[in-house]
Amino acid sequence: MRAFIFSGQGSQYAGMGKDLYDAFPEAKAAFGEADEVLGLPLSEIIFNDAEALNLTENTQPAILAMSAAIARILSINGVTAGFTGGLSLGEVTAYVFSGAMSYADGLRLTKARGRFMSETVPAGAGGMLAVMNAPPDAITDIVEKAGQSGYIAVANYNSPAQTVLSGEAAAIEAARALVAAAGGRAVKLNTAWAFHSKMMERASELFREELERVRFTPGKLDIPVVSNITGGFIRDAGEIPALMVAQIKSPVRWEACVRTLIAAGADEFVEIGPGKALTGFVRQIDKSVKAVNVENVKTLEAFLTASRKNIRNTAVGAASGRPILG
Fold this sequence. Notes:
Alpha-Beta Plaits, Malonyl-Coenzyme A Acyl Carrier Protein, domain 2, alpha/beta, four-stranded antiparallel beta sheet
């Protein structure tokens, strides 16, 4: 069973999606709709203005637009998924893909979400740190010791090989020094804010008000979505607003999400959107499942070619009585 997983913030780059825009009318339509809904030249920002693209209020709808463009192209080629999910911002894209909300509402929400997350805490007051290959007890010890310099907490449980910390700038620097002193590896993320922590409390409350303007499709989701908050499946669309509010200020349990999908039968993960961070996380979590990324014409064509080959093999196997492939 296939799962579509959608990229989060930090994977963006200037020019992303431009070759798709030029090659596929579905992509051009997705980017054009984003421009119209938001009332700004988002596509021009994505293709030509790296500085503006990296503003959080632009980054988030930009990644959603690119991801939606790819999903539309896959759909018209007969490629869909039985499950879906996304990392942080990517979870909003998953809600759009699942039919829980409209694309237009997703664009408006991500624009507002990005603005609230970047404006409610002064730039530079916080930061985030990715810690690699540290066991849970070591992470606990780092957080406890770095906490003497200020607020710090776990923001992302991404995989067995990566945990992300979030907090006040001084505490993040203390954590980085502690990791280095222990001979470990840590990378400070390119953000001046402490996402997925209690420092986002005000942003989450403002976002709650924004969500009141959105209509969610009632009932069970057309395509099951895993929640970053619980790590489990969302049972009903009515749960989504509260989960979206909590997600801004709470840890992202991505490893748990992937394990839930695998337990439900997902054995092929397709990362949709810029970058391949989620593909790497899936491989770190379980090497027995297939994981690929689709972010441009080259990777799209490679994926579609492989998918068609699997379909042909399946048909031949069924007709001949041989084991079904793919």
